Amino acid sequence: MTTPPAHAEAVAGIARSDRTGSSAASASRARRAAAALPPHVWVAGAGLAVFAVAAVSPGVLAPGDPGEIDLAATLSGPSLQHWFGTDELGRDLYTRVVHGTRDSLAVGLGAAAVSLILALALASLTLTGHAVAVVVDRIIEVLFAFPTLLLALLVVGMFGPSPTTLAVAVGIGSAPGYARMIRAQLHAAADSGYVEAATVLGHPRTRILMQHVLPNALRPLVGVFTMSIGQSIVWASSLAFLGLGVAPPSPEWGALLDAGRTYLTAAGWLVVVPGLVIVALSLSTTAVGAHLRDRLEGGR
After folding, report:
1. How far apart are alpha carbons 268 and 67 in whole angstroms?
2. Where are the domains of the chain?
3. Of 4, 91, 232, 287, which shows the fewest CB atoms inside 10 Å?
4. Which one, of 137, 111, 127, lies nearest residue 237 by Cα?
5. Which residues contact 254 (CB under 8 A, 6 or more apart)?
6. Is 134 helix (H, G, I), strand (E, B) or coil?
7. Highest-confidence range of 25-39, 83-97, 119-133, 198-212, by mean pLDDT?
């Protein structure tokens, strides 16, 4: 039976109207969600966007050469020509800070990834059995007893300073704290009613773990991962300040701090500017990460 043309056009019109209405509703929800964001989250998000541009395409914000030497402008203070001043070789500090964003963020992202992967591996082992859980819990407690910086120092001392070693060292140092948090999340999910129902229905243990426990336990980790990026950069910069970070002439922020401390009294901007940038990134990742964590946990 052939559908009359008028009826077909009406059906098509209704379908288009439904799609348009759905798109409009989605756009409206997105606008409401954006409007509900606190002002500090907007500011932090804008800051992270600037850092992302600096990491992906630093030439957009600072087209100069970060290694260009100008001995005539040695240790010049902030000015219209050199916004952040210059270093002991006359290199423009603004350009070096912008071009160092990529290395600094790479260390922060790498350290955050290492810490959360290691923490997830340790916490997941506690679900395999009581005996294994006891052993893993003792390992986590022993590692947690060591300060983060001390564990990182041990790793860097054994393998030498480099961006990769720095990321791994900070990640290992941060892992015990995250392991305790992830363990609590996993066991709370494993003891929930929907897991008990899936067990009664005869679902395999692996399926229950992958489909029910992990997705519900790991949702808040999106925010935690974001928050840990800034914290990891702070730890990496602390190691650099102790002379165990990325070696000069890299413009990585920790390396800038390490090089600038020699001229702390004569040219304080060499330490103050990289320090303020590290603080700004840490505050931005913390604000955005805390908001994501609250939303994914069903909070605000």
Report:
1. 20
2. 100-245
3. 4
4. 111
5. 104, 107, 166, 233, 236, 237, 238, 239, 240, 241, 245, 246
6. helix
7. 83-97
Beta bridge partners, 86, equal 92
What is the distance between the alpha carbons of residues 72 and 115, in angstroms, rounded to a whole number?
A: 45
pLDDT for residue 173 is more than 50: yes
For residue 176 the two structure tokens come to: 């015990």
Burial category of 69 from C-beta neighbours within 10 Å (exposed 0-12, middle 13-18, buried 19 and up): middle
Selection from 92, 52, 49 nearest residue 69 by Cα: 92
The conformation of residue 57, written as its DSSP 8-state character, comes to -
| Mean pLDDT confidence for 19-30 | 52
Query: Quick one: which of 268, 249, 253, 240 has its CA closest to 85?
Result: 268
Asked if residues 195 and 132 have their Cβ atoms less than 8 Å apart, the reply is: no
pLDDT tens readout for residues 194-203: 667 766 766 6
Task: Supply 189's token pair.
Answer: 């999910």
Note the CATH architecture for domain 100-245. Answer: Orthogonal Bundle (1.10)
Per-residue pLDDT of 275-293, as tens digits, reads 999 999 989 988 888 888 7
Contacts of residue 145, defined as CB under 8 A and 6 or more positions apart, other chains included, come to: none
In whole angstroms, what is the distance from residue 241 CA to residue 218 CA?
A: 34
98, two tokens? 């912008």
What are the tens digits of pLDDT across the range 28-61? 554 555 556 788 889 999 999 999 999 999 999 9
In whole angstroms, give the CA distance from residue 223 to residue 283.
13
* pLDDT over threshold 80, residue 14: no
Cβ distance 77 to 253 under 8 Å?
Answer: no
Residue 1 CA to residue 165 CA, distance in Å, equals: 72
